Amino acid sequence: MDNGFDYRNCWYPIAFSRDISTASITPFSVYDENFILLRGNDDSLTCLRDKCPHRAAKLSTGRMGQGIIECQYHGWQFDLNGKCLKIPQLEPHKEIPQRACVDSFQVRVVQGLVWFWYGTPGQDSTDDIPAVPDLDRGDTYSVDYIVDLPYDQSYLIENVIDVAHIHIAHHGIRGGGNRELALPLDFTIEQNSAKGIKAQFRSIGLPENTTSPLKAALVEFVAPNLVHYTSEYKDVSLISGLALYSLPLGQQRCRLLYRKYSNFFSGRERRKPRWLEHHNQNTILQQDMAIIIGQHETIEASNLELNELWLPIKTSDQLVLAYRRWLDEHGGNMPFFRGYRTSYRTPQSRDSAYPSDAYQIHTRHCRDCSNMHAGLVRLQKSLTWVLVILALVAISVEPGALKNTSLLVIVLSIAAMLGLSRFKKLFE
To answer: Per-residue pLDDT for 318 more than 60?
Structure first.
């Protein structure tokens, strides 16, 4: 293993800026270290360690207001940069100790993503953030999606860099695949270094299509957090791609920040509500999640390395092997990693409490879906009151037009409630 890669001196993607509310505390973790992202009333973003210096209570359970965050345990107050402003139990003539501050960290917003610097202070150059140049074009439109997953980052990256599974695992799903197109693949790896892996790929055996606008398909792993798919077109004015950013929340948790972009989406696609696109992505990710949870459990319980467990084939798994071997070569200083021939894990029992429902893994992190869910809850409560009132009317009046109308509206309201309940479950 070489020292060409240092997992700490990297920028880590936390969330889409649009999903972080004003005057809010957003907890997150990186390699099982806990932090909080704070958005002030002036829309500024800061980041602190999620630990009160008093007795190590989590600040994320506290409250925030007027540019101050207060620990829920003993009421210690801090500004948004971590400076301690007040200790209620400190004698009036005593100065606040210098150690009574919270560690702060650099954050930046680039292309709508919030980035966190995990490494040495002063070495945080925004030039090192893996931005996508095509997103800065005025005609590019993107669809953003966030989801938390109950397995570590390497399993996610293995999954999204695996071209071969798409036509099988996601057959018939919009944005997924077609089983008949599950063919051998030819990979040309153009770069493999500490900075990542870059390759072209194509299906072997497809009849030549001279009318296809596509010239080439490329995929790039930009260490440690980005898998970037791009399409090259014969018409050089066309662009499209898929930027899959990931965050290693912990040894058994990670976050995917998905960004699909193009400059030739239809008007209908551009007008589509964000929550509707997210429902489709939830469907695809939950298909993968069920498979990968099983894969993760089998591998982690085996006490074997992947080269002892797997039977890979060149025309399917070449990129997956390249990534796992990259971890063999460059992942040795990470808190945990699983390469192809080597690994390091801290002993952990699988926590069955890690959620896999749509609300916990996605809705609560997404402002649009969270707002839609809250609106549906309010509408459901309103319909319940309507039903109660109509039932009272139907009971109290004599048989006739009013009673019949009330009964009809009750039936329609019950049908609406059932439909609303099914719709609401898409976000739960």
So the answer is: yes
The residue from 365, 385, 412 where one domain ends is 365
Q: Rounded distance, CA 424 to CA 376, Å?
A: 6
Q: Which residue segment(s) compose the domain that 176 sits in?
A: 136-365
What phi and psi, each to the nearest 5 degrees, are found at residue 283? Answer: -60, -45
Please identify, among 104, 126, 148, the residue that sits at the C-terminal boundary of a domain: 126
**What is the model's pTM?**
0.91
271: pLDDT strictly greater than 60: yes
Host H or E run for residue 219: strand 214-222
Residue 4 forms part of a structural domain = no
Q: How far apart are CA 254 and CA 236, in angstroms?
A: 36
Residue 129 pLDDT more than 60? yes
Which residues are within 8 A (CB) of 394 and not within 5 positions of it... i.e. 6 or more apart? 403, 406, 407, 410
Q: Tell which residue, 24, 37, 57, has the closest CA to residue 113.
A: 37
**CA 159/CA 284 separation, integer angstroms:** 12
Six-digit token string for 108: 């930046």
Total tally of structural domains belonging to the chain: 3
Task: Pull the structure tokens for residue 234.
Answer: 């014969």
Residue 6 located in a structural domain: no
Question: CB atoms < 10 A from the CB of 376, how many?
Answer: 18
Closest of 420, 408, 355 to residue 381, by C-alpha:
420
- As a whole number of angstroms, the distance between CA 71 and CA 346 comes to 30
